[in-house]
Target: Solute carrier family 13 member 1
Amino acid sequence: MKIFSQLWVYRRFLLILFTPLLLLPLPLIIQTKEAECAYTLFVVAIFWLTEALPLGVSALLPALMFPMFGIMASKEVASSYFKDFHLLLIGVICLATSIEKWNLHKRIALKMVMMVGVNPAWLTLGFMVSCGFLSMWLSNTSSAAMVMPIVEAVAQQIMGAEAEVDALEMNYASGAANEALELDESISESEASEWKEKTKDANGSSSDEGHTVCKIEKEKNLPPAETGRRYRNQKDHMMCKVMCLCIAYSSTIGGLTTITGTSTNLIFAEQFNTRYPDCQCINFGSWFILCIPITIIIMLLSWVWLQWLFLGFNFKEMFQCGKEKSTREQVSAQVIKEEYTKLGPISYPEIITLVLFILMALLWFTREPGFIPGWSSLFPQYPGFATDSTAALIIGLLFFIIPAKSLSRTSNGTFFSPLAVFDYTPLITWKEFQSCMPWEITMLVGGGFALAEGCEVSKLSAWIGSKLTPLGSLPMWLIILISSLMVTSVTEVASNPATITIFLPILAPLAEAIHVNPLYVLIPATLCTSFAPPNAIVFSYGHLSVIDMVKAGLGVNIIGVAVVMLAVTTWAVPLFDLQTYPRWAPDLSIVNNTGL
Model:
């Protein structure tokens, strides 16, 4: 047993050492460019799935191995590591940095919850909607980390207030004086300080002006789960579980809606546009039209599933009008209102961030809406030159230019005072942007692009397509279902970006081989890759066990795959003309007949 324990300690080193050695016969025996590219693909894929090396480091292997095998020159491989995707990501991260720095995310989340109501079921849905909306523009990890401290505060206040009500009722029953009921507005000194620290870590900011943003993205050692937590009854424990799981899954489901919502969507868009440059059908607007119904349906069904699984689902109680609010509902409303009041009036930086946020979304939607000419048509001599990254960069640069403080009038009515000292600080600084930029994902995506281009140059993609041709005899819905279930299963043990980066170069040749619109296979696979939530964030609060996450995740995954299957067989068909094989995709039957 001691030997096994020692081997387990060095498992990553052993994987790094033996994976290339065990696979080495493949290029040595076959000695073709396809085999050499396959060797590189297998080594990188195993390192990504096992995370024997950091994802970003493994992504650099194609830059080393392709030139050594003579597949691509070093300059050609290097050009694959920075694409239009990276410019789009930079603009989005500029927006995310400003939102997190000025606490606009908290104002949006609380306002949405206040609009939904304080019935426990509706309150949970309100948190899901607010977290889902944030994840449309921010990463799922950041969205969950931002909303969870608010959820935790509400849950603790509810349990504390109901405990006080029970104590007062017991005193009244025993003949004690029944004083006016006052809701406890504090958890306890230790719990409050702990919650405040969690809020500070998750939001990445504090009340100090020199705060740091995006700490949650950089912290690998999350706070340990809180043990010994006491609940008044089983219902309180179940309520905390539901709230945590709803945040975890809504932060993932919301990201499906926009092309910038998840890294997997961005990877798909860039790899698809690189492989099929003549196709102009994938943009921000078309993706939003496709995915907004998917997101709404999955979120509602997941809400029903989680409510039923842990608390039961009482429709009569939910829709009963004129009913007096319970203690739980009164406390929820009070806590949320107090949290919103603490934010104070909306500040100048928040207003500017919100305006730029809306402007960026409008530029994305109106670039090429499809049914009317977009703003890109203003440059007819340069068709296709302006992309979504162009709009993102325009807005992203403004965050570094617009000052974070507005000019205020002095007593004599002027904007400037001769004795005043002005300090020009933009909405975000480069240091703050750097702390938010997901550099590992940037390198991972670049490595995926290099692998995809290597597969094309070495003809490995064509070889894979020829071997997958017999699958064309299967029903189309079965092929989509198998590929969707496959990627959903792999994401349970591997990161989402690594999974989609591995499968896209395999599924695209499959679609070409069976003469099916590539979008028919690639869209469901991309969406199903994004169902794995940021479990570590919600798990760190100590309410959940592993079995809770397994039960909840199984149901959400089934719901997600079913809804995606429904989408690609109904409203996605006319949107992308999925029933016909497009001109922009290569016709392998012609290629095979000509012998090329």
About this structure: The chain is about 65% helix and 0% strand. The mean pLDDT is 78. The first helix runs from residue 2 to 9.
